[in-house]
Amino acid sequence: MKLSLYLELKEIIPKCRSRRQLKRSVGIMYPEIPIETIGSIYSQEYQRKMKKTHHKHNSPERRKLYYDMFFEKAANKEKHIIINMARKFDLSPCMLARILMDEYLEQNPKPRHFEQTTPKRMIISQLFKNPQKLPHVVLAMAVHEAVIADEHYGPFPDNIKRAVGFEHEQKLCKWCQDNDIHFMSEDDMRKEGYDKTPDVKLLIPIAVDGYAINWIESKASFGDEESHTTYVRDQLGPYTNRFGPGLVIYWFGFIDALDCQREHGIAVSDGLPKTVEKINPELWAKNLDWEFPKAPRWDPFDFEF
């Protein structure tokens, strides 16, 4: 995706309040862009917005405001309290539910289902999964509704992201098996004691468009500059230092300009390689002089787009 198109989407997408509205508006305006790509960009921008504004919503004054407002509305028997409040204050429903439960636990005894020594954070995590354990029935029902309604935070979105990520990792492993490419999976590497574990580490390197590949990382998301820079620092750069050059796949697309670090050992793609050059395993074992183009050691202080 061209950077100019991505910047256009960044201006339009945050104005949508839900994925349904996203499909109706942005999906119609840009029919050539897969809706999965638009949805991934929307989710990334929404989560960043919540992180940037979290301190404002989590201040003591705001927490008290939200808590008092909730119970005032509960006393008036209003419906959809957390969802309506979240929409009014431009806040994630699950984030608001977490604040309300946190305040409730501060002002009331811990629910009888939990030991007194159980950390509050652990209690809140359990209450998200089982809101019925909250003694306050109205708050419990409102939290349950918030969990169901929230498209970006909470148990449901987390489970969906894990499932989508696992699905694409399995797709990558199946591609390796179908193409008779020998590899170690992430689980295999953990068992062997590796400290850094790409989704696939090739036992014998392959060449894609003349570029050496020793590992492949699967990302079920859109690759923008901020997320890619973080991945390079925390994952992709260390992979290159340990295993040599490799490939990261952003299944929902990426900004074209990000594929600019091949000389540092990081290639970027939006799908599985279409053509692969493989090495004869016997030749690989015997010919110690065989060399792929080597990438220089990756330096986190020398990475620019």
TrEMBL record:
The record's subcellular location field reads: Cytoplasm; Nucleus
Major location (coarse): cytoplasm
Q: Which domain of life is it from?
A: Eukaryota
Q: Which residues cross the membrane?
A: none
Q: Which Pfam families match?
A: TPD
Sorted alphabetically, the keyword list is: Cytoplasm, Nucleus
The reply on keyword Cytoplasm is yes
Enumerate the InterPro entries for this protein.
CDIN1
Example GO CC term: the record gives:
cytoplasm
Protein's name according to its UniProt entry? CDAN1-interacting nuclease 1
Q: Which species does the entry assign this protein to?
A: Littorina saxatilis
What lineage does the source organism belong to? Eukaryota, Metazoa, Spiralia, Lophotrochozoa, Mollusca
